[in-house]
Amino acid sequence: METDTNNLSFVERLFHLKEANTTVRREILAGLTTFVSMAYILFVNPQVLGTAGMDKGAVFTATALSAILGSVLMALLANYPIAIAPGLGDNAFFTYSVVLAMGIPWQTAMAGVFMSSILFLLISVLKLRELVIDSIPHDLKLAMASGIGLFIAFVGLQGGGLVVGSKATLVEMGSLTVPTTWLTVFGLVVTGLLMAKKVPGSIFIGMVLTTILGLVTKLIPLPHQIISTIPSMKPTFGVGIAHLPDLADPKLWAVVLVFLLVAFFDTAGTLIGLAEQAGFMKNNKMPRIGRALMADSISMLGGAVMGTTPTAAYVESSAGIAVGGRTGLTSLVVSIMFAIAMFFSPLLTVVTSNVTAPVLIIVGILMAQSMKQINWSKFEIAMPAFLTIVGMPLTYNISYGFAFGILFYPLTMWAAGRRKEVTPIMYILFFVFILLLYTINILPAK
């Protein structure tokens, strides 16, 4: 009994449960809820990065370990109930924009991830984050999040067979005579209904039900086993560091910059939104946000070394917060669950693109909701915001969407007589992106 009391006392001292008006039981339940809500990334991330040519088993392990690292750091450094794992927007940019569209080998692209991770860590250490956040207008931040959402949804529609290429119209409706396409339809409908009913872990449950349907109908082959040893990271570990000399190619400058911007604003925006939900905000500021960003930047660097794209604070943490999670104990429980999940890598074979497609579409819908907050009534804001949003899916490149917004915003604000509202950093980014776009388009793909 005395040992139990000492353990509880240690947990109390570490996470300040009484001050946060919570209990160990409630925090454990919140951690389990958050994990179930975001566990899909263990299977979606290897699927997306596997398309770029990376070893799925190695990515599976790197995904889990980076999530463990980030969530533990968030728990111990910042004491927030916010989990961290590789972000969907970042892996989509890595695979579809950098590797497939630009023709850059994944090994070189991973060097870009590693360099952007170092820059992100330096920004966190030097406390330049507020300066960078304040420099880009709120409406453009919202447009960037929305554009990435549309891009991810488009990738999901394409991967699930609902949208296919067309010589006449570029894209068209996919054929419903393809049996596997119906798995995507089923997953989208089921997950959508669960989301509408606000069922915790809707995305993960939708994936499980879609996989079961695929196994029953034999559209997905049965796995040879369920539990196995943890896959080796040898195919991806340290590859980014080994290929750092490739960054001499100016084409990679744009990649590094966009990785940095996506990771920075994705995490900062999510942290603030979750802090609002949990009631952490004080005087419109989030306490310990520096520590939270530090946790994410360290896990991002660790993930780059291990072989995965940038990590981010997960919006699915809102599920755990909704059931009462208020401290880092919630995040610690999430990390423990990721550690256990590492022994279930054989399930990767049953999580096909038709199973993950509904996930991408649903996450795209959630991210696109940022559009409602954009000030569409002012054309000088609406134009760069709109071009940012549509530029990402229509050019099949997230970096071009960023560029469109950053290039047009200073011009339209000048024309509207609002040039004083444009920050000096926005002018710097204006010329940087002109140089980067020029460099990307005059250099041949490797």
UniProtKB/TrEMBL annotation:
State the UniProt keywords alphabetically: Cell membrane, Membrane, Transmembrane, Transmembrane helix, Transport
Q: Does the keyword Transmembrane apply?
A: yes
Q: Where does it localize?
A: Cell membrane
> Which molecular function terms from Gene Ontology are attached?
purine nucleobase transmembrane transporter activity
Pfam families recorded: Xan_ur_permease (PF00860)
* Membrane-topology descriptor: Multi-pass membrane protein
Which Gene Ontology cellular component annotation is one that this UniProt entry carries? plasma membrane
Source organism, top-level taxon: Bacteria
Which positions, given as ranges, span the membrane? 28-45, 57-84, 104-128, 140-164, 176-196, 203-222, 252-272, 293-315, 335-366, 386-412, 424-443
Q: Which family does it belong to?
A: Belongs to the nucleobase:cation symporter-2 (NCS2) (TC 2.A.40) family. Azg-like subfamily.
Please state what the protein is called: Adenine adenosine cation symporter
> What species is this protein from?
Companilactobacillus kimchiensis
